[in-house]
Write a structure and sequence with these properties.
This protein is an alpha+beta fold and about 200 residues long. The chain has 4 helices and 7 strands, in the order ββαβαβαβββα.
């Protein structure tokens, strides 16, 4: 069935678009909720007027959002978190935590839903995420998760252990390489001794 949309439907269509949709989807969902209507001339005119109104509204939202983007370009938000004995966070850092930190620092009134975080952060370190203000305006920022004061000794101990582990592995690799070199030399010497005996 061909319908014209009176509202945006995420992942399907935007207001004013004329699209072919499944009959069941149109009859059971779109038409009863007045989200879309049959693609008649009157409905298309109505949808076009709604689309123009929506475009003006969207442009206004985008203009407001661009001023916020300027404030966040190249920005790094630092979030302190409690770290457990294994180096993983107690709990996690969520989009709500990130939004609160940005709002605290920049007074921008960012909603947690604008913070696009595929999953909560459970480890220390820096990562890039996106703040999406509107359909057309977004900005990448860096989130750096650092240990809180109480966790710093744990993190220092874990880093020292990791450094010691790396050193031990490097030493083992050097010893193995040296032994391999000695074995090759011994094999080469034995081969030349055999060649001399046969001569």
């Amino acid at each position: 069935m061909k319908v014209v949309f009176f509202e945006d439907v995420e992942g399907t269509a935007q207001v004013g678009e004329v699209k072919e949709v499944r009959n069941g989807f149109a009859r059971n969902y779109l038409l009863p909720r007045n989200i879309a209507g049959p693609a008649t001339r009157e409905n298309i005119q109505r949808a076009t007027a709604l689309a123009e109104k929506e475009a003006r509204r969207q442009e206004k939202l985008d203009a407001e959002a661009r001023t916020k983007v300027e404030a966040l370009e190249g920005y790094t938000v630092t979030v302190e978190a409690r770290v457990g004995e294994t180096g993983r966070l107690f709990g996690s850092v969520t989009n709500r935590d990130i939004a609160e930190k940005i709002n605290e620092a920049k007074q921008l009134d960012i909603d947690p839903h604008m913070v696009l975080l595929p999953e909560p952060i459970r480890e220390l370190g820096a990562r890039e995420i996106t703040i999406k203000f509107t359909r057309n305006v977004s900005v990448p920022i860096t989130v750096e998760v650092v240990p809180d004061e109480a966790s710093k000794p744990i993190v220092e101990r874990l880093e020292a252990e990791r450094a010691a582990q790396r050193e031990a592995e490097e030493k083992a690799a050097r010893v193995a390489a040296y032994q391999e070199e000695q074995r090759k030399k011994a094999a080469a010497a034995a081969k030349s001794d055999n060649a001399e005996e046969q001569a």
